[in-house]
Amino acid sequence: MLVSNPEFVENSEYGYAVARIRALETKIVSSAGYSALISAPMERFYALFSETVGIQGQSDADLQPMLRQLEEGYTEQFYLVKNLLLEDEIKRLISLEYDYELLKLIVKEGRAQGISIPAELSRRSNYSYPVLKSLLESGRFTDTGEILYGTYHALQEEKGQNGAFIDNRCDISCYREIFGILEQVQAPFLTGYYIRRIDMHNILTTLRLKVRGGKRSDVRSRFLPFGSIDLSFLEQGLDLNLDGFASRILFSPLASVLRGVEKRGEEVDQIAQAERLLDEELLKYVRESVFVTFGIEPVFAYLWAKEMETKNLRTILLGKATGIVPEEIRKYVRGLYG
């Protein structure tokens, strides 16, 4: 069931953490900052980017080092947040998604050559790539947890399956473990966040399959459980326009997001807009943590805001360097208002 209005409970143990986060929040790039970067002429762009973000670069030749610095900067903030958390279960939870991303790569590496392992992905995991691979291959499920190891073992027996199948099975297991942790710690705000993420994934998957002429069996094979939207509503969405689909999921706050998509233009453009609006709806939910004086919510909200910022800056940096016009870049930047 969707947690739409979580009750925030004050926890004085997080007083120091929240104070640190409130100070850091003032440094997050604003909507005006994004607009200035997008609109800047190229002869001014890199200098402005450096001023705004603190990452040095003077030309297109510096693009890859700048992208690496962006990811490294987010990893530093990731560890800062992780060190502010008090509960071991929550510390594990925020790295869990990276554990399963590494699991996907480990399984795929066993079936094909040339798999690239991003360094920052490995650094944010609970294990790192070589450690996790060693634990899985040696059968040490007590160190990885039964769900992670069980998923690895099951996928080893599914030799004929493609990358989409591997991704789906890993994502399902990841959320199963996430919600198991959330059931122990009783964190309504975090539960609401992850339910929304699952619903967003399922909605966008359905819309993309619709454009490609997908079938209901395709929706079933990519469906993630644990959300608030039943599979049957998603299957119906294949045969409906955006407004019709929204009418089937009126119980979800995401229905109004679909209704807000401009109906002009190609379906592909509508999906891109829907993805941006859904991300911004999630960002709006995260920002509700501003009403918490002491608690875990602002700590997580800051991390998610920094993740969004990193994605936005990467989009702007790549867009400007490759000559994409500002109007087109704006379509893919989240939280850009005015």
Q: TL;DR of this structure?
A:
With 338 residues, the protein is mainly alpha-helical. It is built from 18 helices and no strands.
Topology:
Elements: H1 15-25, H2 31-39, H3 42-53, H4 63-84, H5 88-109, H6 119-124, H7 129-137, H8 141-144, H9 146-156, H10 163-185, H11 188-211, H12 216-222, H13 231-237, H14 242-248, H15 255-259, H16 267-286, H17 297-321, H18 326-330
Helix pairs in contact: 2-3, 4-17, 5-9, 5-10, 9-10, 10-11, 11-16, 13-14
The span between the termini is 34 Å
Question: How big a fraction of the residues is strand?
Answer: under 5%
- Radius of gyration (CA) equals 21 Å
- The helix tally amounts to 18
State the assembly state of the protein chains: single chain
Structural class: mainly alpha
**What general form does the structure show?**
globular
The largest sheet is: none
Helix content: 55-70%
* Low-confidence region ranges: 6-11
Mean pLDDT: 90
What's the order of the H and E elements? HHHHHHHHHHHHHHHHHH
Q: Tally of extended strands?
A: 0
Describe the protein's architecture and organization:
There is one protein chain. The chain is mainly alpha-helical and 338 residues long. The chain has a domain at 88-186. The protein is 68% helix and 0% strand. It is built from 18 helices and no strands. The protein has helices at residues 15-25, 31-39, 42-53, 63-84, 88-109, 119-124, 129-137, 141-144, 146-156, 163-185, 188-211, 216-222, 231-237, 242-248, 255-259, 267-286, 297-321, 326-330. Helix 4 (63-84) runs antiparallel to helix 17, helix 5 packs antiparallel against helix 10 and helix 11 runs antiparallel to helix 16. The longest helix has 25 residues, at 297-321. It is globular. The two termini are 34 Å apart.
